C-alpha cells in the first residue's frame, strides 16, 4: 500500500440530526458498539471514509457527522483553504477561543447519546482529528462517551503560548472530565507527530497534567531522519500517513484495540 486507505460514500445511510441547537447530516454504517468519527479538515474526504470503513470492518456501528465540507469530495489545496477560512470565523467552532465551550460540542454529545441508546456495549467511542481532535474530549463530558480519542487536536489554533497550552475545554468541561477520570475510570487517548506545529507538545503536557495516567499518548517520531520515513510536516496520524506496516498503521491498530477494550 503506497497511498493511504480511502473509501467512498457507498453503503452509508445519511440522515439529518438535530442536537444541541444545531442540525447536520450524519452518515451511518455497520453494527456493534458505537463509534462517532468526526471528520478532519476539509471534511468527509475519501481518507476519512477509509478510516470509518475500517472501523465498520472491525465490528463497530459508525456514525460520521458532516458539520463542514462536501461529503465524498477529495482534498485539495483550494478546497481546504476555503473550509479553513469559514471555520476560522464560525461561532459554532470558536477556532481561536481559549478556556471555552464550543457549540459543536453540544451537538456531538447529542449524537453520542443517541448512538449509545441503540447500540450494544459500554458507552460509545468518539474520534476527533485535526480541527476536531479536541471535540472528542469535549464530547466525553456526556456519560455516554467512554472512549474519547484525540488525534492531532489543533483547536484552539496554536497562535501564541496560551493557545498552544490550551486543552480546548471550558473550565466547567475540564472539571467534569477530571471527575469522570477519578470516579468513572474514564481513559483518553491522544496521538500526534513529534514535529507537528499544529499540535504543540505544550497542549499534550497540559492534558497529561490534568488527566495523569488516564491519558494514553502515542507520539510518532517525525524528526529529521526518523526511522518511519515521515516528513516533518506529517500531521494526520489515522488517515493520510497510514501505510501497510508503518507506525501510523500500528497507531490505528492501537486505537481499534482501545475502542474494543473500553466499549466491550
Automatic annotation (TrEMBL):
Pfam families: DLH. The keyword Hydrolase applies. InterPro entries: AB_hydrolase_fold, Dienelactn_hydro, Dienelactone_hydrolase-like. Residues 32-153 form the Dienelactone hydrolase domain. Keywords: Hydrolase. Signal peptide: none annotated. GO terms for molecular function: hydrolase activity. The keyword Hydrolase applies. It comes from the Bacteria. This is Dienelactone hydrolase. The lineage of its organism: Bacteria, Bacillati, Actinomycetota, Actinomycetes, Propionibacteriales.
